[in-house]
Amino acid sequence: MGDIPEQLKVLDRVTDAFFAVNNDWLLTYMNNEASRLLFRAQTDIIGKSLLNEFPEGVNLSFYAHFHKAFNEQVTVEFESYVPPLEKWFDVRAYPSSNGLSIYFKDITCKKSVLLRKEQHYESLFKYNPDAVFSLDLNGNYLSVNPATERLLGYREDELLNMTFVPLIPSEELDKTMKFFEEAAKGITQHYETRAYHKNGKILDLKVTNMPIIVNNEPVGVYGVARDITQENKNEVLLLESEKLRAVGQLAASIAHEIRNPLTSLKGFVQLIENKVPGVHTEYFKIMMEELGRIELITSELLFLAKPQAQEFKSEQVNKIIQDVVLLLGSQALIHRIEIKTENLACLPAMLCIGQQLKQVFINIIKNAMEAMPGGGVIQIIASMPSASLMLIQVIDQGIGIPRS
Q1: Within this chain, do residues 302 and 324 fall inside the same structural domain, yes or no?
Q2: What are the distances in angstroms from CA 151 to CA 109, 187, 318?
């Protein structure tokens, strides 16, 4: 290759670095750009061994590629980082019968930009609060971020050895598979589904599936999933709250509609009683008591519809219980139940929210009534075990709760 250096001097004018070696790995030519990048003067390096001048290349990928090009007589192209120079190089080696011609250029700036972009994407994947994962076209996990591990309870190595199919409840599987298959065809999908946590709990998920496209062909599917279990629970609670509010408004409306004619009825009963004093007095008494009970019921409806601000007051507990017995009296008669009270007079006044305490007794006595479909007796027994302890027992004749 003695005449090659003269022929290759034109390469001093090209922007790529270039050098040539013979079959013994001796440098036969180096252009100005190569001299600049490698910090070697052309006059000092021509005729010397490439292996001796750049021994650090033995531990890098350079010599492996160069040997491949020379031994197999094939062109090789590769990128490699050189730590001593702190540079990335794009390298191409062309073999001939006499040796190798090697072109390379500094791509450090370009590589730094690409690495920064890769780190940006890696950060978006790694630190995303939503579960982000990739699947092949058969649904096998290829990668998962830490949020996916937290969401499903499985470690990364466990997920990378399974498909998503076992994680989906049977009733959701067909729907979820259809969305996955559409994404695998190249069409982004947004949907909601459910999945099993490793501990067996079922999660509500909002999922986006996006195709992974390489050379204009789908090769897999990206997924982004977010746990919406609590959101769905809150939505149900909100709907229930709105329903209760509507019921409350209806109850208040009914109560108001009843109270208006009720006031008229009470007035006319009192007027008639005054007009005919002494005649059927017991009938007028019963009518006024029944009207009073209707008035009490409407008052309870208004309270339940529009709860007032909580305020503790001194209330007579025996009076509260008696009002509840009166309120539930007609319902007890319908179910052939007699409500008996005992020793209520011993109960002292106490600081409480009277209407809420009344609701407690209503609930307890109604539960006792529901436990006695065949009728019977409910006893309400009061006692004072000590000066600071009040005991009120509600005893029914129901069948009780089974042991198992």
Answers
A1: no
A2: 39, 25, 54
Give the residue numbers spanning the domain of 36: 4-111
Q: Does residue 121 lie within any of the structural domains?
A: no
In the Cβ-directed half-sphere of 375, how many Cα atoms lie within 13 Å?
6
Q: Are residues 209 and 249 in the same domain?
A: no
Q: Residue 386 has which token pair?
A: 């000590």
Residues in Cβ contact with 75 at an 8 Å cutoff, skipping those fewer than 6 apart: 69, 92, 93, 94, 95
Task: Write down which residue in 196, 227, 258 finishes a domain.
Answer: 227
* 89 and 135 part of one domain: no
Cβ atoms 1, 99 nearer than 8 A? yes
Structure tokens at 41: 């003067």
DSSP per residue, 189-247:
EEEEEEEE-TTS-EEEEEEEEEEEEETTEEEEEEEEEEE-HHHHHHHHHHHHHHHHHHH
Separation of alpha carbons 54 and 60, rounded Å: 11
What is the DSSP secondary-structure string of 63-95?
Answer: HHHHHHHHHHT--EEEEEEETTTTEEEEEEEEE
**Residue 188 gets which letter from DSSP?**
-
Residues 280, 219, single domain; the answer is: no
Q: pLDDT 10s digit of each residue in the chain, 404 long?
A: 444 445 555 666 667 888 889 999 899 888 888 888 888 888 888 899 988 888 876 667 788 898 899 889 999 999 888 887 788 889 999 999 889 999 998 888 888 777 777 666 677 678 888 999 999 999 999 999 999 999 999 999 999 999 999 999 999 999 999 999 999 999 999 999 999 999 999 999 999 999 999 888 889 999 999 999 988 888 888 887 787 777 777 777 777 777 778 777 877 777 787 777 766 777 777 778 778 778 777 777 666 666 555 678 899 999 999 988 887 887 888 889 999 999 999 999 999 888 788 888 988 998 898 888 889 999 999 999 998 899 999 999 987 777 65
DSSP, res 186: T
C-alpha triplet 42, 100, 87: angle, nearest 5°: 60
Q: Whole-prediction pTM value?
A: 0.45
Number of domains in the chain: 4
Mention every residue, 6+ apart, whose C-beta is less than 8 A from residue 108: 86, 87, 88
